[in-house]
Amino acid sequence: MPPTMDMLRFATAGSVDDGKSTLIGRLLFDSKSIFEDQLSAVEAASTAKGDDYVNLALLTDGLRAEREQGITIDVAYRYFATPRRKFIIADTPGHIQYTRNMVTGASTADLAIILVDARKGLVEQSRRHAFLATLLRVPHLVLAVNKMDLVDYSQEVYDEISDEFTRFADKLNVSDLTVIPLSALKGDNIVTRSANMPWYEGPSLLHHLEHVHVSSDRNLIDVRFPVQYVIRPQSSQYPDYRGYAGTVASGTLKAGDEIMVLPSGFTSTIAAVETADGPVAEAFPPMAVTVRLNDEIDISRGDMICRPQNAPKVAQNIDAMICWMADDALRPGRKLAIKHTSRSARAVVKDLEYRLDVNTLHRDPAATELNLNDIGRIRLRTTQPLLCDEYARNRETGGFILIDENTNRTVGAGMITSAD
Ligand SMILES: Nc1nc2c(ncn2[C@@H]2O[C@H](COP(=O)(O)OP(=O)(O)OP(=O)(O)O)[C@@H](O)[C@H]2O)c(=O)[nH]1
């Protein structure tokens, strides 16, 4: 099995105080990946607060505070591992600008955990999180019904929340949903099945995270290799060396494959695929590699290597779902910078087709603007063609971000629905 396949990236989402920090702390703690010194600091802080247990939220919050001293990073990534798998958690602070954070954290995730407080049941944000996760095509969704200890581990409470959420998820076409009752604080159903909930027959959270099948989620069919750098050492030792470096977005590449380069349309065959550690027999997503070709053709940054019979669209009219992330509203006529794969261009918003009410899934075609955290469908015209696919088919070549050219801030995340 390829080395990157035993890794799971997941994101957590929940409203304030649902227990996200406690859950992440618990996972890190129980998988023994907390550094001893951090742990003793947490113990000291917990004792100082008069808690009679180690407050794991302090750990996550402490790490988060460190990160918040830097201003540009919205999402912190944490790592832990079990003998079965490596895990990357995108920890997205819940309160402010949660759409922005969730989009950032979930856009590359294999799985999203949506937390709810068992005492409160589903709230508006739970539906929004579920909607965003499906909009971002996160392949696996977990509804974690937390704080079960505070509802006497009641099956009735759990069933009601689980049923209501499952009905909502059906409307969204969630492809894989798992609902787990747990207590992040007490550790029920986190690593092992809890004796407090004998009526629950599913897996513990960690067992599910270790076993959920993700390798088939990756698109290994459509070859898409956006060129990030052209490497020409210009040294007398390698006078003719020319390589194209980038990250495989989808598909597999190996020596001998016929390829086409867009937008030029020139064709060639792959001479070799190389990494920092030497040549490899095959490259697959998300490997960072350098591709060499058997013909000398003109290729620059932002070009795309694909297969002659399976090419992305070359398009300037882009229809997309947008999550708007800025305080100032998005209106038709606005000009923005667009970043798509390794390509940058400028774009103008031609039309706002509708704004979506995430709770009811109702479309409002009369809407004239998108405000902070709004989701809607827009039409863009770009100055240069994008080499793109529909997001439903390819998360890498179907996604883009919009940037305000005055402030250089990311103000929107887009998922292409069609392009011509
Ligand atoms: N009884 C009980 N309390 C819990 C559980 N999980 C979290 N809590 C408590 O709920 C409160 C909020 O937990 P946090 O982990 O800080 O919540 P959060 O969602 O991360 O909140 P933010 O970091 O502010 O977004 C804390 O007092 C926790 O100790 C649980 O399973 N059972």
TrEMBL record:
<keyword id="KW-0067">ATP-binding</keyword>
<feature type="binding site">
    <location>
        <begin position="14"/>
        <end position="21"/>
    </location>
    <ligand>
        <name>GTP</name>
    </ligand>
</feature>
<protein>
    <recommendedName>
        <fullName>Sulfate adenylyltransferase subunit 1</fullName>
        <ecNumber>2.7.7.4</ecNumber>
    </recommendedName>
</protein>
<comment type="similarity">
    <text>Belongs to the TRAFAC class translation factor GTPase superfamily. Classic translation factor GTPase family. CysN/NodQ subfamily.</text>
</comment>
<dbReference type="InterPro" id="IPR011779">
    <property type="entry name" value="SO4_adenylTrfase_lsu"/>
</dbReference>
<dbReference type="InterPro" id="IPR005225">
    <property type="entry name" value="Small_GTP-bd"/>
</dbReference>
<dbReference type="InterPro" id="IPR044139">
    <property type="entry name" value="CysN_NoDQ_III"/>
</dbReference>
<comment type="pathway">
    <text>Sulfur metabolism; hydrogen sulfide biosynthesis; sulfite from sulfate: step 1/3.</text>
</comment>
<keyword id="KW-0808">Transferase</keyword>
<comment type="subunit">
    <text>Heterodimer composed of CysD, the smaller subunit, and CysN.</text>
</comment>
<dbReference type="InterPro" id="IPR050100">
    <property type="entry name" value="TRAFAC_GTPase_members"/>
</dbReference>
<keyword id="KW-0548">Nucleotidyltransferase</keyword>
<dbReference type="InterPro" id="IPR041757">
    <property type="entry name" value="CysN_GTP-bd"/>
</dbReference>
<feature type="binding site">
    <location>
        <begin position="91"/>
        <end position="95"/>
    </location>
    <ligand>
        <name>GTP</name>
    </ligand>
</feature>
<dbReference type="InterPro" id="IPR027417">
    <property type="entry name" value="P-loop_NTPase"/>
</dbReference>
<dbReference type="InterPro" id="IPR031157">
    <property type="entry name" value="G_TR_CS"/>
</dbReference>
<dbReference type="InterPro" id="IPR000795">
    <property type="entry name" value="T_Tr_GTP-bd_dom"/>
</dbReference>
<dbReference type="InterPro" id="IPR044138">
    <property type="entry name" value="CysN_II"/>
</dbReference>
<keyword id="KW-0547">Nucleotide-binding</keyword>
<dbReference type="Pfam" id="PF00009">
    <property type="entry name" value="GTP_EFTU"/>
</dbReference>
<feature type="binding site">
    <location>
        <begin position="146"/>
        <end position="149"/>
    </location>
    <ligand>
        <name>GTP</name>
    </ligand>
</feature>
<keyword id="KW-0342">GTP-binding</keyword>
<dbReference type="InterPro" id="IPR009000">
    <property type="entry name" value="Transl_B-barrel_sf"/>
</dbReference>
<dbReference type="InterPro" id="IPR009001">
    <property type="entry name" value="Transl_elong_EF1A/Init_IF2_C"/>
</dbReference>
<dbReference type="InterPro" id="IPR054696">
    <property type="entry name" value="GTP-eEF1A_C"/>
</dbReference>
<feature type="domain" description="Tr-type G">
    <location>
        <begin position="5"/>
        <end position="218"/>
    </location>
</feature>
<comment type="function">
    <text>With CysD forms the ATP sulfurylase (ATPS) that catalyzes the adenylation of sulfate producing adenosine 5'-phosphosulfate (APS) and diphosphate, the first enzymatic step in sulfur assimilation pathway. APS synthesis involves the formation of a high-energy phosphoric-sulfuric acid anhydride bond driven by GTP hydrolysis by CysN coupled to ATP hydrolysis by CysD.</text>
</comment>
<dbReference type="Pfam" id="PF22594">
    <property type="entry name" value="GTP-eEF1A_C"/>
</dbReference>
